[in-house]
Amino acid sequence: LTIMGDAGMEPTVSPPDSTAQQDSLVSMTDVFLISLIVGLLTYWFFFRKKKEEIPELPKMQTVAAPVRDSSFIEKMKKTGRNIVVFYGSQTGTAEEFANRLSKDAHRYGLRGMAADPEEYDLSDLSRLSEIDKSLAVFCMATYGEGDPTDNAQDFYDWLQEADADLSGLRFAVFGLGNKTYEHFNAMGKYVDKRLEELGAQRIFELGMGDDDGNLEEDFITWREQFWPAVCEHFGVEATGEESSIRQYELVVHTDVNMNKVYTGEMGRLKSYENQKPPFDAKNPFLAQVTENRKLNEGGERHLMHLELDISNSKIRYESGDHVAVYPANDSSLVNQIGEILGTDLDMIMSLNNLDEESNKKHPFPCPTSYRTALTYYLDITNPPRTNVLYELAQYASDAGEQERLRKMASSAAEGKALYLSWVVEARRNILAILQDMPSLHPPIDHLCELLPRLQARYYSIASSSKVHPNAIHICAVMVEYETKTGRLNKGVATNWLKNKVPDGNGSSSMVPMYVRKSQFRLPFKPNTPVIMIGPGTGIAPFIGFIQERAWLKQQGKEVGETVLYYGCRHEREDYLYREELARFHQEGILTQLNVAFSRDQAQKVYVQHLLKKNKENIWKLINEGNAHIYVCGDARNMARDVQNTFYEIVAEFGNMSQPQAVDYVKKLMTKGRYSLDVWS
């Protein structure tokens, strides 16, 4: 007989005397009975509690948030729409373009709706053919290094895994990108290609907007060819000229409870007074500025280091992540707009969507005051897009000014050229336009409806959470420049951050923020060498990287070579974090500290020149040490020049042709050994 298990082996042990055995049996019986009684009592107790709680459940259900209908097909059928325009938007531009396209539809006897892919089940695309003359348009921005925007991530994942039959779907794609980036319009290209692979029918070619050029003109050019293609496909005609149709109606609140009025919150009312994690774009954390110091010793620019206290927020970050901050517009600009329009900025109002079925009930949190809207919710510093000028034209009493506005909003070559020179290149914001067109007096509520949302600004975090778990550091340069019209334009966020005072607990020291995860990461193995290239404020993430490598060394880990290539204009003016870097170098944390001072000599010297100077060592680190390369800073010139330098080094020391060297570097990128954190 074979008895399985450890318990079954006990009978093979020699039996003790019978009395002991009897005592043992008694104690075992006692234990069994006590356990049984305790078990029954426990079961009865919890069973009884459950029965008592059952009547309470309906009450709990009534206060729960309603479940959103995730079928855009049902919504389109219910509201008589046949065009849906999805947007993947990080800064609001793609959403703006989607709204413009959906409004265009009425001119052709069609009805459109703009839709956030995050709010709907996109597998329903296969059912769109159930609606007559149906079309799906996708305005897709590319974020970072060829990534989808946050709100399009689920859609992107679904496209990658989907094996759906989309043969009944008609579609068109307009991509928003920037040519200075490696993966120009990657998301637009992918959506366009993947939908076709799944059997969908493209009714107009992929449009590709370039934000490094003139994104607005790219969109207008695509749009003016897109609609004729739609007309031809469906056999419809334009019903008339573009007309001004209000999307929101104004409601003025004369007797309102001020506790129900938004004062700058991004999502939940009073969320800044009653903070609740988790913190994200719709629920930012109000962090206190504990330090704000000027980094540069001279020169015209103002470079600053800020420290945000994130204690008790449960916010976690890694070196290389980005911190997003929600800034506020300069109060003097807001006041001037109010004065020109003769408006009481403290009037409490709401802008309510005329389409009751829309998920977007208001263009920004309402009810609120015009002052709050113009300060916290609306972008008043960027040059307005052509659709805003078109809508505003009707409010110019001077015929010449009205004609000028309409011309700039037209698709005629002369109009496009005028918009480019008078608005874009002159950097005229809405205040400058109102000042330079004295007869233009739009109702402030319509202006608030037309202006885009003020967006969060992203900064590479300049600290390591291993060393500073309760703080996030920012390194930034204040943007300030004179326009062609002689006006002084200031960067919204950097000007606002500069004035954040660490003393006290008032709003003057508070910054609404959240963390956005990044792929810009130190190697998993600490002994892997790293080559960091970051001139100017591009040094930010590398301060965090160096802090982390120092911490790892303190923990007894073997840390590989840590090489930095940094650059600034003048050694005595804008050498950022000079003392910290010197200390890290002295302590052996930084194995190499290479600094290019571009304007301290007749011939300009940049980081790429120092890379060429040390090319043999660079190749050895890459080829033998499997080093990881990191580039942070300007995308337009620096990142491209640095990349070309790596092509040259690889070609020379790897005995490769130029195409082979390019392929080698691209493979490093694919493997995560060449990472970029760049901006233009």
Account of the 3D structure:
- The protein is an alpha/beta fold and 680 residues long.
- The protein has 4 domains: 72-234, Flavodoxin domain (Rossmann fold); 275-327 and 456-518, Beta Barrel (Elongation Factor Tu (Ef-tu), domain 3), CATH 2.40.30; 328-454, NADPH-cytochrome p450 Reductase, Chain A, domain 3 (Up-down Bundle); 530-678, Rossmann fold (3-Layer(aba) Sandwich), CATH 3.40.50.80.
- The chain is globular and about 70 Å long.
- The N and C termini lie far apart (80 Å).
Can you lay out the helices and strands and say which pair or pack?
Blueprint: H1 18-53, H2 57-63, H3 72-79, E1 83-88, H4 93-104, E2 112-115, E3 135-143, E4 147-148, H5 153-161, E5 170-177, H6 186-197, E6 201-202, E7 207-210, H7 215-234, E8 248-252, E9 285-294, E10 303-309, E11 322-325, H8 331-341, E12 348-353, E13 368-369, H9 370-377, H10 386-393, H11 399-408, H12 413-425, H13 430-436, H14 444-450, E14 457-460, E15 471-477, E16 480-482, E17 488-490, H15 492-498, E18 510-516, E19 530-533, H16 540-554, E20 562-568, H17 578-586, E21 592-597, H18 607-613, H19 615-623, E22 628-634, H20 635-653, H21 658-670, E23 674-679
Parallel strand pairs: 1-2, 1-3, 3-5, 5-6, 5-7, 19-20, 19-22, 20-21, 22-23
Antiparallel strand pairs: 3-4, 8-12, 9-10, 9-18, 10-15, 11-14, 11-18, 12-13, 16-17
Helix pairs in contact: 8-13, 10-11, 11-12, 18-20, 20-21
